[in-house]
Amino acid sequence: MKALYSHALGASASASALRKPLPLLRHLAAAFAFIFIFALALPALAQPQPQGLAGTAYDGLTAQQQAALLSRQIASGELAKLPDEQLLAAINALQPEAALLWARTEMNRYPEYEYWMTRQERLNGQWQDQPARMMIRYRHAPRQLYAKWLPGGSQAGQEIIYDETQRKDEMYGHLGGMLGFTSMWIALDGTIARAQSNHTVRDLGFQYVVSMLERDARSLRAAGLTEKFTRADIVQEQGTRMVALTWDLPAGAPRYYAKRVQLMLDLKNPWPRVETAWDAEGNMVEKIVFEKAVRKTFDASAFDAKNGDYKF
After folding, report:
1. Do the bridges between strand 126-127 and strand 240-248 make them parallel or antiparallel, or are there none, so unpaired?
2. For this UniProt entry, which segments traverse the membrane (predicted)?
3. Which of 53, 81, 88, 204 has the fewest C-beta atoms lying within 10 Å of its C-beta?
4. Domain map of the chain by residue range?
5. Helix (H) or strand (E) holding 123
């Protein structure tokens, strides 16, 4: 009986031992599991990482520091040399207020300048197919300017002078072509002026573009919204590589400048090259191309109708 009991215990112990995995088998199972998991993860590890994850020179800087760096990199040409992916990463790294801080700082360096531009607008619901081509001599403070409409554009030959120290609400000018023989004082927001533009003469100049964006930024902040551009894109405009910054705004005019506003920067000059605006229905309401700007120091004759180079 005792022998049978011992035999039964031995058989039970042997069965129990068979049910327990041997140490070697446990190690082999763990090794195979590790190899299997590593093989699954290997394709993901091999995927190239997005360019933006490498970081940019703008990361960790304050808005003021970013604006200063942006100014230096544009002046040196460093920013324009970046490939598209790195350029967009740098632009998107800007703090919400950095772009406008940069623009305002740069415009403060241009108290007086001469510039050339083309302008198209939607007037009374109709898009003007032929842009106006203009040369403008501009002084910001006090606000004084001379503008001439150039050949090849609408209203060619027209001239105006505005001097807020003389008459703040009027400009002096004449029409182009056969009607250019008489110069007269014209109300800034009168019928003649409004027939040609939705803007007054005081809206000319780069400073106006910046002030318009600053006004919208204040409205966005007051509403608890970000003032940062909605998106940045690399575009080709007139054969030139540019960065297009687009703001999609909560509403159109008059609450905001327009429902959508876009500025194009050529990364070589400290002023916008193209400004475009759309209404709530998606219609383009204006497009202004700034072709060239030269910093100047004007004497009094630049804003005097008696200047012999003018035809008043």
Report:
1. unpaired
2. 27-46
3. 53
4. 107-303
5. strand 112-123
Residue-averaged pLDDT of the chain: 87
- Alpha-carbon distance 277 to 285, whole Å? 6
For the stretch 56-109, pLDDT in tens is 999 999 999 999 999 999 999 999 999 999 999 999 999 999 999 999 999 999
Structure tokens at 233: 């894109």
* Residue 118: partners with Cβ closer than 8 Å, 6 or more residues away: 131, 132, 133, 134, 153, 288, 289, 291
Q: Which is nearest to 302 in space by CA: 185, 145, 97?
A: 145
Residue 219 has which token pair?
């409205």
**DSSP reduced 3-state for 312:** coil
Q: Please name the amino acid found at residue 109.
A: R
Give the pair of three-digit tokens for residue 265. 């920067």
Residues 259 and 244 sit within 8 Å (Cβ to Cβ): no
Structure tokens at 302: 């630049």
CATH number of 107-303: 2.50.20.10
Contacts of 121 (CB under 8 A, 6+ apart): 127, 128, 197, 198, 285, 286
